[in-house]
Amino acid sequence: MNTSKSKRPSPATQPRRRMTPLKIGIITAAVAIMLLLVALIVGIAAQPRTSSDGPTSTTPAAADGELPGTRSNTHVLDEVGPDAPTLVEYLDFECEACGAFYPYIEQIRTQYDGKLNYAFRYFPLPGHFNSMNAAIAVEAAAQQGRVEDMYNKLFQTQTEWSEQQESRADTFRGYAEALGLDMSAYDAAVADPATQARVQQDVDEGRSLQVSGTPTFYLDGELLELSKYTDLTDALDRAIAD
What we know:
Blueprint: H1 21-45, E1 75-78, E2 86-91, H2 96-111, E3 117-122, H3 131-142, H4 147-156, H5 158-161, H6 169-178, H7 183-191, H8 193-208, E4 216-219, E5 222-223, H9 229-241
Parallel strand pairs: 2-3
Antiparallel strand pairs: 1-3, 2-4, 4-5
Helix pairs in contact: 1-2, 3-4, 3-6, 3-7, 3-8
């Protein structure tokens, strides 16, 4: 009688189970959500707090700006008018948290279309090598009336150029060319010290208001303290209802 037992194939010879497309999709989505939440937590943790030894957290309505927290040269992407709430975002185009917030802000702009003024102000952080170059590129595009096109382009391509320790100004110039900008005018604007001075104006005013991290949001001149997504929409709903 044959008493030998059949041998199991070793783990190395066993066929591997293939992951179904559904499982791959679920894992990919979960990883993306985790990365988004980490970026948002980092950005929110970096937002300033009020201090009794410094300026208040309230942004005064600028003397030459119609909307709270803006100046006549502030880039207002959605303008309803002074009777509607005004959301102002201090941002850095190289900031991961700003990049994570970008699709959420686009969703909010659609959700509150016709009910909300939305503006952004530059706040390139010194720890990001290309953040000032990116802001200058946006400002150069703004001088040709294409601020929102470059704003979208830089956020949509952020992972392609960010976190580099060398200038990506040529990359931004390529984006400007792809957008069909007048390149002679673009180059002149990038080279003009006044363009960087315009960016620095936002930075200086932000620092005077204790802005230290990005993204930082002000609603009708008041600093928003955010710990979750709905804090922003809840604040917007209250402001619109008032």
